[in-house]
Design a protein that fits this description.
The protein has about 90 residues and is mainly alpha-helical. It has a single domain (about 5-75), classed as Fe(II) trafficking protein YggX (YggX-like). The chain is about 50% helix and about 10% strand. It is built from three helices and two strands. It has helices at about 25-35, 35-55, 60-75; strands at about 5, 10-15. A two-stranded antiparallel sheet has the order 1-2. Strand 1 and strand 2 (about 10-15) form a beta hairpin. Helix 2 (about 35-55) packs across helix 3 (about 60-75).
C-alpha cells in the first residue's frame, strides 16, 4: 500500500517517500511531511544551486549551505534561485 502524506510543499495529500532521504531530524521531518513529487522538485532546485554556485557536495560548508536551503525550501520561505540563473527556454 502506498504511504500518503499531507505534503507541506504542495499543500495536498500525495504519495510519500519510502524512506528518509536525508539523515537526522531534518530527514525525518521530510519523510513525515514531504511527497515524492515535492522531493523531486527539490532535487531539481538543488542541482541548479550546485551548478550555479559551483558547489561541491564533499565540502562541509557547501553541504551546510545546501542543508539550510533544503530546510527553507520545505519548511521556510522557500529557497531562492541564484540571481544570475536564467532557465532554458
Amino acid at each position: 500500500m502506498t504511504r500518503m502524506v499531507n505534503c507541506i510543499k504542495l499543500k495536498k495529500e500525495a504519495e510519500g517517500l519510502e524512506r528518509a532521504p536525508y539523515p537526522g531530524d531534518l530527514g525525518q521531518r521530510i519523510l513525515d511531511s514531504v511527497s515524492k513529487e515535492a522531493w523531486q522538485g527539490w532535487l531539481g532546485h538543488q542541482t541548479i544551486l550546485i551548478n550555479e554556485n559551483r558547489l561541491s557536495p564533499i565540502n562541509p560548508e557547501h553541504r551546510a549551505f545546501l542543508e539550510k536551503a533544503m530546510e527553507n525550501y520545505f519548511f521556510g520561505d522557500g529557497a531562492e534561485l541564484p540571481p544570475e540563473f536564467t532557465p532554458k527556454q
